[in-house]
Amino acid sequence: QVKLVESGGGLVRNGGSLRLSCVVSERTVDRPVMAWFRQDSGKEREFVAGITWTGDYTYYSTSASGRFTISKDNGLNTVYLQMNSLKPEDAAVYYCASGGVVLKQPEYFDTWGQGTQVTVSS
């Protein structure tokens, strides 16, 4: 029922930046957490960053910490991921998701977007 649509992916040079966006069709009280995940070919889906709609609590993976910033606009029902100092190992399909708890495991998020591709040149 709830739909998430990501955008902003593309090709960027090593050390460059991208800003991803995720538009949410509707927000619900029982799904107060939004998060970004990524998945490269042959690898498991990996948590990147999370944020709460209320209270503005944020949390990050070790890899993202210090380089990526998650933010949101409640009025626009949109979550953003600003990615700086990108590395080739950051290349993946990036997904946004909604969930009910502040955790990093993908099984706790039950609504997902279709993803946006990020490619980083060496």
Task: Record keyword descriptors for this entry.
122 residues, mainly beta, 7-stranded mixed beta sheet, 4-stranded antiparallel beta sheet, 11 strands, 0% helix
Write structural notes for this entry:
The protein has 122 residues and is mainly β. The protein has strands at residues 4-7, 10-13, 18-24, 33-39, 46-52, 58-60, 68-73, 78-83, 92-99, 109-112, 116-121. A hairpin with a 4-residue loop joins strand 7 and strand 8 (78-83). The model has no long low-confidence stretch (mean pLDDT 97).
Compact summary:
This protein has 122 residues and is mainly β. The protein has strands spanning 4-7, 10-13, 18-24, 33-39, 46-52, 58-60, 68-73, 78-83, 92-99, 109-112, 116-121.
> H/E element string?
EEEEEEEEEEE
Task: Average the pLDDT over all residues and give the rounded result.
Answer: 97
Strand residue percentage: over 45%
Helix share bin:
under 10%
Quick one: overall form?
globular
* Helical segment count: 0
Structural topology:
Layout (H helix, E strand, L loop, with lengths): L3 E4 L2 E4 L4 E7 L8 E7 L6 E7 L5 E3 L7 E6 L4 E6 L8 E8 L9 E4 L3 E6 L1
Parallel strand pairs: 2-11
Antiparallel strand pairs: 1-3, 3-8, 4-5, 4-9, 5-6, 7-8, 9-10, 9-11
